[in-house]
Amino acid sequence: MERPLIGDSQGRYRIHIVGNCGDTVAKKLSQLLDIPYITLDSLFWRPNWEQTPDAEFKALVSKAMNDNPNGWIIDGNYQRQVGELVQNSATDIIWLDPPFVLYFPRVFVRTILRLIGLGTPCSPGCNESFREVFFSRNSILCWCWCDHQERRNHGRNRMKEIGLGVGSDIENRRMRRPGGWGKELGEWIKRVETMVRGK
């Protein structure tokens, strides 16, 4: 059976989590592997939802990776802003692609918790209002609803290129998709736990 993570020749892991709902998985992997978790949201969004200019954002992402030579976990897509910067540096790419009816309710609940002050904003100073959440095209709920199929199509195309066991670019296969309703993802995380214990 193949290892759950590839890593580099020194046993270091640079993991890029893409797709939907990566926060929980990223935190779990960070704890298991004892490497830092870097969220692209926190680098991109300044207080009051001010966007970091693309060139500056790209420099911040590069610095975050370079400051952690022993490995990192980065979640977020932001391909328009940083291109392939993170993916080209990653030893492993994890595509989280749960069914919409599974992940959207989770996003909805987390959003409500943030609205009532019981959740952490995606970046310091980026608080959401009732109007922004329910009556704005910039709402995370609207984004999830409208962007789901585009994200899925992008993930499928990347799997065709660099997916483990299926990608056409054999030298660069490093992307996996623990899909389904959660069982496959849970089993994969257990395999990571077993791998770490066996070190």
TrEMBL record:
Organism per entry: Armillaria gallica
InterPro entries on file: Cytidylate_Kinase-2 (IPR052922), P-loop_NTPase (IPR027417)
Lineage, uppermost ranks: Eukaryota, Fungi, Dikarya, Basidiomycota, Agaricomycotina
Protein name: Adenylate kinase
